[in-house]
Specification:
Layout (H helix, E strand, L loop, with lengths): L1 H14 L8 E8 L3 E9 L4 E6 L5 E3 L7 E6 L2 E11 L2 E10 L4 E10 L8 E12 L1
Antiparallel strand pairs: 1-2, 1-9, 2-3, 3-4, 5-6, 6-7, 7-8, 8-9
Length: 134
């Protein structure tokens, strides 16, 4: 009986071996006004994150969680919701979505002049980027 339990234990351990996943999936996007950006989806068992290649060649967190922005994740998709964030010379409230399954980057937002509030903002801000797998 003890031998059967040991064999069942081995079967369970070896049946759950790590399989290749989308852990280091990377896409390159050409974002208007920002140039070319490289995004990496780093998905673990209990958490996920999206990293972006900065100008010094290191991957840093794309959407760090703060009071004004919050990341969320779906299947091969990352969403960064932001509020009152400065984009150039405007304030914006909206979200940026990166899809790693069908490489794409898009941002939708409401915008206002600096010093204005969300109630004074206008809808219709949209940006898209062309992306491809790296």
């Amino acid at each position: 009986m003890r031998m059967v339990k040991i064999l069942i234990g081995f079967v369970l351990v070896f049946s759950f071996q790590a399989q290749q996943s989308f852990a280091d999936e990377e896409i390159i996007c050409r974002v208007k006004g920002s140039g070319q950006k490289v995004f990496r989806l780093d998905s673990g068992i209990f958490s996920s994150s999206v990293l972006v290649l900065n100008s010094s060649g290191q991957f840093v967190d794309w959407c760090p969680e703060t009071d004004s922005q919050k990341p969320s994740f779906g299947r091969d998709t990352a969403i960064c919701k932001f509020s009152g964030t400065r984009l150039g010379n405007i304030l914006a409230w909206g979200e940026t979505v990166i899809d790693f399954a069908q490489p794409s980057w898009k941002r939708r937002y409401r915008f206002a002049k600096l010093g204005q509030t969300w109630k004074e903002s206008q809808p219709g801000g949209r940006e898209r980027a062309t992306c491809r797998l790296r």
